[in-house]
Structure formats: C-alpha cells, structure tokens
Design a protein that fits this description.
CATH architecture: Roll
Number of strands: 4
CATH topology: Nuclear Transport Factor 2, Chain: A
CATH class: Alpha Beta
Order of helices and strands: EEEEHH
Number of helices: 2
Length: 75
C-alpha cells in the first residue's frame, strides 16, 4: 500500500495537474496527473530523478521569464 507524502492540485489554464509524492516498499515516486476535460494522463518519476527534473524546470522558468510570451509562442 502506498503512503502519500505530498498531494497538491495545480490549475493551469484549462488543465489541472495533480502532483503527489508517494512511498511504497519499492521506494518513492512522484506522480503527476494531468486532467483535461475529464481525460487523465499520468507520469511517474522515480525519486532518483527529481533533482534533474527540478533543474530542468528551473531552466525552463528562467527562459520563460526572460522571453516575451509572443516570441515564446512562435518558437
């Protein structure tokens, strides 16, 4: 049985993301579920990959903040 360590709901435009950190006998995993109009897709990230995911997200945020949205949408 999974033990839930974190559970967050993140709305973004017409999507809702459910982010949870879970632990089971095999280890910890981050589960990211995207809900778009009732259709759900899930990605599971082993805990060992969390820092690399965070670093990549940080980089994407920096680029987003430094690039006007009009240019970012065309790229």
């Amino acid at each position: 049985m999974d033990k839930e360590l974190l559970n967050r709901k993140v709305p973004a435009e017409r999507k809702v993301f459910f982010i949870s950190l879970r632990e089971n006998p095999r280890g910890r995993v981050l589960r990211i579920t995207e809900d778009v109009g009732g259709r759900r897709d899930t990605v599971m990230v082993p805990a060992e990959g969390l820092e690399a995911i965070r670093d990549t997200l940080d980089e994407a945020i920096k680029i987003h903040r430094s690039t006007p949205e009009e240019q970012g949408a065309q790229a």
